[in-house]
Amino acid sequence: MYAIIIKEAAEYVIIDAYYKGRWRCDEKALKAYLAYMSGFDRLKPNAVDEKSILKSARRMNLDENYVIEMSRSFDNENMPRYGNFDPVYLADKLPQFNDGIITPPNSIIEVTPYCNYGCSWCYIPPRNKVRNEFYSLEQLRDNVVAPLINTFGAVEWCLTGGEPTVNPEETLEIARMISNESEDRLGRRPNRMYMLTTGFRIPEYIDRFEEAGINSYQISLSSPDPVHENLLRKAPRRVDSHAAALNAIDAVVDRGLQAEVNMIIQPQGAHEADNLYDIPEMIQLAVEHNVRMLRIIPAVPCGQAKENNILMSAYEYAEVARMVADGRKKAPNLIIDCPIDQRIEKDRSLFCRAGTLWLYFDFRGNVYPCNNLQEPENRVWPNTIKTDKADKIWLDSPLLQFMRDYRNDDVAEQCQSCSLRAACAGECRAMTWARYRTYDLSSKPKDCFAEQQDVISILSHSGAASKVSIRDS
């Protein structure tokens, strides 16, 4: 669980990034919470460094017994333990912030627009790639990396494409720059720098990537079946996309780095091969290869998927939910990230990572709320990072401020009670935009997804979800 922190006058609101809790506190309690967070490392999820917690407490001039007592409360409340920022650095910066968000984005940086695979569901829309329109390394450093470190103490970064390994030297140059800026400004390397990749050429470059600071990988694999995978991904001739992904996974795991697998589920009959019913075998593959997390995500109808009319039915969503729920039981130690196999509480608003935790920078320097919102209307700022600084964009963008306003009553009564809400839009603004060209569901859409389906209650059997409470304390 990641923490988002919003300042409201003399108080602070701590929000779980996945909206599984909300807490209110004063500045002293917030500092105790930040000291508590300093004892946890996302890459070592079962370890607690109590010495770091007490060291942070002393640095913040907090009574150690008070911090210990508060830490028990944070544990009991199951509050987020992780952040994408240096908690001690952020504590020192508290006086500088006005009302609004005070935590940074996970910056998703498009290091290249080029990719050698032909996935027809890619989230990137069709676009011209003119080399002289690319942002420069200096612009990325001065207007994105340095400001986000200076203002918030940002310690997590994501490198994506295109495919980052198509131009590995440029990717290495960017990774080194981020690591160097972090060391110069925070005295430490980033906690996490991860790459979104097909796995292409990862074993060849992984040593150099690790030296540059890349320590986590999200590797795309559409199917555990080599035939299905290669038909779906359309890799270049003489490149086996299935073997490339598995070799990358093994190379990452063998080095003790973090490996996640990303499986994008396709509608039946949309391609030369299907992968819907490959889910059980994919779960088994992830276990066998010691993958930490498996993301099973139905294709979002944006980018190339929108152009190619890739849309899933309610029945297909239900099948995904059924197989994922079964997989969670059979592989309890594997983290399975899937947005549709758990029910959404009736009072749950649209509140996702777009505008609260994520920020996407394309190769031209345009800024978007997330990778799945990249149409011209989704730009969060009129200028690019060639001229404007990312910390100002993050704090002042009206669209981002709207997206992170947890007080919005943005789901109509009919949508709240709909059994197909998880398949329709869930909590996701990108899905809401893709279906209805709006960022909320404050009124029932005219072209309602549920009314287009043959069976309205088809997801009702998908399994009970844990009760989630939203609480202020």
Automatic annotation (TrEMBL):
The keyword Secreted belongs to this UniProt entry's keyword annotation: no
Domain of life (superkingdom): Bacteria
Keyword Iron part of the UniProt annotation: yes
PROSITE patterns: RADICAL_SAM
Keywords assigned: Iron, Iron-sulfur, Metal-binding, S-adenosyl-L-methionine
Residue ranges of the TM segments: none
InterPro entries linked to this entry: 4Fe4S-binding_SPASM_dom, Aldolase_TIM, Elp3/MiaA/NifB-like_rSAM, Radical_SAM_PqqE_MftC-like, rSAM, rSAM_sf
Ranges of residues in domain Radical SAM core: 101-341
UniProt-recorded name of the protein: Radical SAM protein
Organismal lineage: Bacteria, Bacillati, Actinomycetota, Actinomycetes, Actinomycetales
